[in-house]
Design a protein that fits this description.
The structure holds 2 protein chains of 2 kinds. By secondary structure, chain A is an alpha/beta fold. In chain A, about 30% of the residues lie in helices and about 15% in strands. Chain A has helices at about 135-145, 160-170, 190-205, 220-235, 240-245, 265-275, 280-295, 330-340, 365-380; strands spanning about 15-20, 20-25, 30, 35-40, 50-55, 80, 85, 90-95, 110-115, 120-125, 150-160, 175-180, 315-320, 345-350. The termini of chain A are far apart. By secondary structure, chain B is an alpha/beta fold. The termini of chain B are far apart. The chains are: A alpha/beta, B alpha/beta. Chain A: Pathway: Amino-acid biosynthesis; L-methionine biosynthesis via de novo pathway; O-acetyl-L-homoserine from L-homoserine: step 1/1.
Chain lengths: ~375, ~220
């Protein structure tokens, strides 16, 4: 992986630009604000069937269609689509690239602007201001308003997407009829932050990092970003899943030769790393991992998580996965208890699986049944 | 062609246990209800659809909880022994515990929590004072196994069996007013023993109680 990685193909992402920009939690203003997004299905006349999907750290708005950069299927096609749990024949599905992302929304890879919104002829890079999960949600709210949707039938997302779901429910309770935070937590734990820091350190240590101004050399810090992805990928899988998929098998050999043995799990991780750098920007990775690390919903509400949901009329569906050690069930249970303390309407299941954190993206029939049922129940309530 | 069932059959909750129907009868329309040990959510669904109740549930069995959630019901996977403490005071009008009291770790504490978070508690349990239970222990000298108590002692989940009279005694001890009570047979049909606790304790297979907290100065026990 020594070669310079070609820059991303130029893709025209569908997006809306808000000339007045967005004031961020850190005090800075990004102006203008661009939000790249995709929609699936049709908005009904009452504008009551919209479902907002929030993507995870390395996801994007291409939920249920071929990805224009990678050419691969959408990241949640088993959940979003005709006849799927989030049925696009019934619901109008919206997904936006997060603020700070690299698929067309305002972020480090986009052209830097001054306080008047004038382009400065270079990317933001490391000059892009710190963003929070709440900033991401505020940007999505602008999009939802722009689409003329006063109340979302449901906001749904896993992992960092789930953090956004919680922030939506806390920040705009009247605009969220139902909320489905999945495989997530109300704050990022010390262990979560620690793993992210390893990834960031790998990017910073890459000789092609160039202080974050890597566009000047035409070489991206591919090795560092790749290592960051490899570390993160380990945290997305369970020990059982790794054992089941790879065990101690060697590539192209049946026994150790002590020469150039490569375990299958190594080659798998390297592949994950090298494909990732072709679609993701290193500065975006730094910006978004920081946003996750900052996230602490209880701290935003006087130290008591229940305060974030006091008086809420939103219906919640919380789901965790038994072998997820990155966002373990205990975090979801703490969330459920806080919701109970706020007398919120909540459903909660822990799905039995050995697939780890990644399970929310994979074929998990019990999860899909539960999510689909929750959504149908919510739709019934609002007459969709 | 088979004859279509009369339209009201759907509601009579064909599949709903009769004891759940007795419980449902105690709950007025529009009530806020928590059903502890709600199984697949039959009672919650019935209360939501037929009585416009805001009904929620807790179920310890994950498969049942998942089924209830997949049916669009507000059910959480949880444990009566640990999860009730997280609800605020007076969050519900009725808190229901059907056929579960005898299986929890700390029945007294669960009852206390029920009457903290709910204005009323509805509790049903199998009566260990039933004559068949007494007879089998007396004559056979072995732990009784009946239709109701159908698991051997070493694997029964029913770790805290009690009789109807035991339950009355606990209500007196902890200051709960028994607003209504009745004894029923195994299928949940009301049995005519309610005039005598002694007879009910001998012939009732199931007991059903509607409780509330005693007001200051009010004597607990049968209301």
């Amino acid at each position: 992986m020594d070669q310079a990685v070609a820059p991303f193909p130029v893709v025209d992402h569908q997006r809306v630009v808000f000339a007045d920009g967005l004031a961020l939690d850190c005090g800075a203003v990004v102006k203008p604000l661009a939000v790249a997004y995709r929609t699936y299905g049709r908005l009904n006349a009452a504008r009551s069937n919209a479902v907002l999907v929030c993507h995870a750290l390395t996801g994007d708005q291409y939920v249920a269609e071929r990805h224009p950069v990678t050419g691969r299927p959408g990241w949640w096609e088993n959940v979003v689509g005709p006849g799927r749990p989030i049925d696009t024949e019934r619901f109008f599905v919206v997904c936006a690239n997060v603020l700070g992302g690299c698929m067309g929304s305002t972020g480090p890879r986009e052209e830097m602007t001054d306080s008047e919104g004038r382009g400065l002829g270079r990317p933001w890079g490391t000059d892009f201001p710190s963003v929070t999960i709440r900033d991401m949600v505020r940007a999505q709210k602008r999009l939802v308003d722009h689409l003329g949707i006063a109340r979302l039938l449901c906001v749904v997302g896993g992992s960092m997407g789930g953090m956004q779901v919680l922030e939506w429910a806390a920040e705009y309770p009247e605009a969220v009829f139902a909320a489905a935070p999945i495989a997530t937590a109300a704050h990022h734990s010390a262990q979560n932050i620690a793993f992210h820091e390893v990834g960031r350190a790998a990017i910073h240590a890459d000789p092609d990092w160039n202080g974050g101004r890597y566009w000047e050399t035409g070489r991206v810090p591919a090795r560092g970003l790749s290592v960051a992805r490899m570390v993160a990928h380990i945290t997305y899988l369970s020990e059982q899943a790794l054992t089941r998929k790879f065990g101690r098998r060697l590539r192209g050999a049946s026994a150790l030769t002590f020469l150039e043995d490569v375990f299958e799990v190594e080659s798998y991780l390297r592949h994950q790393g090298s494909t990732f750098v072709r679609r993701f920007d290193a500065n975006s990775y730094l910006t978004i991992t920081r946003a996750m690390d900052y996230f602490d919903l209880a701290a935003e509400h006087g130290g008591d998580l229940a305060n974030a949901f006091r008086g809420t009329r939103t219906r919640f569906f919380v789901a965790s996965f038994s072998s997820d050690w990155l966002f373990p069930t205990s975090e979801s249970r703490a969330l459920v208890r806080a919701l109970n303390a706020a007398a919120a309407n909540v459903s909660f299941v822990e799905i039995q699986t050995d697939k780890g954190h990644d399970a929310f993206l994979l074929d998990e029939p019990d999860f899909h049944r539960a999510l689909g049922g929750f959504l149908r129940g919510a739709a019934e309530r609002v007459g969709v | 062609m088979p004859e279509a069932p009369p339209p009201d059959i759907r509601y009579v909750a064909k599949n709903m246990r009769l004891d759940l129907r007795l419980i449902a009868e105690m709950i007025p329309a529009g009530a806020r209800v928590l059903d502890i040990g709600c199984g697949d959510g039959t009672l919650i669904e019935h209360l939501t659809r037929e009585k416009g109740a805001d009904a929620r549930g807790i179920e310890i069995d994950m498969a049942l909880a998942t089924r209830a959630v997949a049916a669009g019901l507000a059910v959480i996977h949880g444990d009566a022994d640990t999860d009730l403490a997280f609800y605020p005071d007076g969050a519900f009008d009725y808190v229901v515990l059907s056929r579960t009291l005898q299986a929890v770790e700390r029945p007294r504490e669960v009852l206390r929590q029920m009457l903290r978070i709910g204005r009323h508690a509805i509790v049903s349990f199998p009566n260990f004072g039933h004559w068949q239970v007494r007879w089998r222990l007396l004559v056979g000298g072995r732990m009784p196994e009946t239709e109701t108590w159908d698991r051997p002692w070493y694997e029964t989940p029913n770790i805290h069996p009690c009789t109807i009279r035991d339950f009355f005694a606990l209500c007196r001890l902890d200051g709960y007013v028994v607003e209504r009570w009745l004894a029923a047979d195994e299928r949940g049909l009301k049995a005519p023993w309610t005039r005598s606790v002694w007879l009910a304790n001998l012939f009732g297979e199931q007991a059903l109680f509607l409780l509330r907290q005693a007001r200051p100065g009010e004597a607990p026990g049968p209301g």
